[in-house]
Request: fold
Amino acid sequence: MAQETILKNSEHESSLIAKRVYISGLIILLLVLMIISRVFYLTVLEYDHFTTLSKSNRVKITPIPPIRGLIYSRDGILLAENKPIFSLEVIPEQIDDVDELINQLKKIISIEDNDIKRFKKSLKKKRRFENVALRLNLNEEEAALFAVNRHRFSGVDVVAGLNRYYPLGEELVHSIGYVARIDEDDMKKLNASNYSGTTHIGKLGIEKSYESLLHGDVGYQQVEVNAQGRVIRVLDRTAPKPGENLHLTIDISLQRVAIEALKNKRGAIVAIDPRNGDILTFVSSPGYDPNKFVNGIDTKSYKALLSSKDKPLINRATQGKYPPGSTIKPFMGLLALNNGVRNLNDESWCPGWFSLKGHEHRYRDWKKQGHGHTDLHKAIIQSCDVFFYILAHELGINRIHQGLSKFGLGKKSGIDISGESKALLPSREWKRKALGQAWFPGETLIIGIGQGYALTTPIQLAKATASLASRGNVVVPRLVFSTSSSITNEKKELPIKTEDKIIMNNERYWGDIIQSMRDVVHGVSGTAWRSGLNAKYEFAGKTGTAQVIGIAQDKEYNKDEISEEFQDHALFIAFAPVESPEIAVAIIVENGGGGSKTAAPIARKMFDNFMNKILVNKG
Amino acid sequence: MEQQSLGQRLHIDFPLLFAIFVLCLIGLLVLYSAGGQDIQLVYRQAVKLLIAFVGMIMIAQLSPAILERWSIWLFIFGIILLVLVIFYGDVGKGAQRWLDLKVFRFQPSEIMKLTVPMMIASYLADKSLPPKFSWVLMTCVLILIPVLLIAKQPDLGTALLVATAGFSVLFIAGISWRLLMSMGVLAAACAPILWYVMHDYQKRRVLTLLNPEEDPLGAGYHIIQSKIAIGSGGFYGKGWLKGTQSHLEFLPERSTDFIFAVFCEEFGMLGVLLLLCVYLFIISRGLFIAINAQNTYGRLLASSLTLTFFVYVFVNIGMVTGQLPVVGVPLPLISHGGTSMVTLMLGFGIIMSVHTHRRFLSF
Reply:
């Protein structure tokens, strides 16, 4: 009996389910009919309406790229602008025979094989309804010629655009950088909708690091286009928000003094205002023309730049790694005073060489006959090496590393462009990790005169000099000090960035070292005394000569025997005026020989230019 | 013993397989056009289809009895994954969250499209039908837990499909009309609450549907452009690869959710009729299998999966033709994209399993 109930139920269930399935089928049929009637309504009843919308006048939404912000120098000179250009663009969809079209166009406008090659290449990449440029940079005459003949060419139009242009060319390429066409790598990173109308993007320098400010926000317009794809009228428009203008800290007249001084030489000059970190001069020599990169540099020119012996593409100011040489001595002196290793008047005997106890090796002084009795003041102004060998030995590498780190050596300066090198401030840990070796005492000695493993970048050296000049106030160097709206012209100052102040156990130490650096220039026996002659203001400095190759124990450095690329680098760090510094500079001339002869006179020229302006301003 | 046919032995239902195959071919054809004639895109989609086919055939090898036994465990597993998604979704924010969830977000909710009807079917299968009120209540709870978890993600389209899958089992199981009506009334009463819970963009989609012209630049733009594309196709269509509107204009997601507009523009009303015929064939085959299934579990499950398949078609076309709000539901086996396709194919695998594991007693 029970068995029967279940069987009965099961039968009942299956018929119930079948009934529901049939009902579902019915509902599905009804809904499908609904779909069909809807599609019928759209495709048959409303066909004319939609065909009209689709064929004759269709509504299209096109992006309006924002205008890129301009870049000005501190003294108001335009450094990056947008020049109007015309290009000849083609909508492939509306062309039956591309080659015939090009032949016809050739009769009125010059089109070179290069253009055709590029055009055919991008023709393959783009969609059939997207504009493809056939000729770039039409001049006004060509644009007008086409305008007259426009009726003969459907699907072809002259499009006005803006092209980035750097009027000062190579003079500022290492700071401003350049924009270039957006490539596939950029596409992955950027906000596609905001860049939907943009063709160029910052690739280097300020153009790259301030990209988001310079670019602005995209606008849109809703336009009615006819069957040829030509815009008939604009229905609606949301204006783009133009990019912000940037104001650089660079003083062009000072920049030019530095460029002139490094003409036909390799090297770098960075000048910083110690009060706020403003970079007044930023030169890496040689430079190159950024304008060539904007619309794609040709392979031949690019290869020439790449393979040039002078390596113009390298930004020496932030990427060049140089031994600091004797310019490290004032900093070493400060460390010695602060750590109580030395008093100002403690003397060492300099016979022209120094050896560690129990070692044969002689560490030589640049002055073969020696400096005799030497205190810290004399050691700095005459750049006595032996004094600093002993001093470094007494300080030891740990204290040297810790102390110099505070001045930013071996660290990125924090400048507002990317690609900066950290260079190298060696330590025991570094050597163990990098070379797997223990630290040798002799290596400490040569750090004392800025040789050995120690490497700095010019920007680091300038920042350290600025910190010393302002008695321990560390400011982060910057190239942009304010932005301004291109609509309202309203200026916005960017904040000054500072780092931890360097504290001395006795504030007097700063004065002691600064006094010595003043006497390097203005003292009778200072290494840079020639550069200080007849100056209307006082400045302080330190010369440096960095060895590029090691000289064997029994050999002497002889300039004439060594080919140029192995000759010493000339260095000079300086600041002015001594009492309340407004400019600190680091100068490196690659293979320039002695710092006092080659580098120091450049600082004098720059300070003359800079201080003159201040004196004029003060009346 | 009766001699088993080839399909029985391989556990493949050839009519269904053939129709799915035709549909996939149509899909690849339209995708080639919609994707800007990118053969790589078509190639990648074909590979995904192949994988899905293999998955379908593998599932079909499992007998419905095994599936029934697994139902509850798969269901619990899916719920745990959904809870994990909520948990991790709250921890990480920004781009990383999106990446983290990329693996999780689609999979648990996709799995639920299969496990929810499996669970409900196995729950109701050993009870005598029509279901009593308390069972219906229990069923509703079982459905709403995953649906709310998915809606919270938020993924309204998938939540809708999972709910459909669950409730269709209930409908097929013979829930009384009176109960069905009162549930409908209750749902309508809850609509204002739903409105309150909805995200701004979801509200905008509903509002846009009511008046697309209001926001022609934003949300209404999809629908306007999609209607122009469909309408300008006419009865015969503009021809394959010749659709201008859908290519020229900014028709978003034209190779995924809005691919039907491209299809309409190029193949016209005639193409739509043929396409619907293929869909109807698949659906009627599915329902035929459901009716002829051997036990209640098989009947409920096969019909639910078939009905859900239809809901895909209906919601997608309704959305593209401007009759339903824009929710992310793809056109099954035509739209570009991997996850939903795999689930659909696995669903067909289950249907095939129901059909090919029948045992015939010979008297």
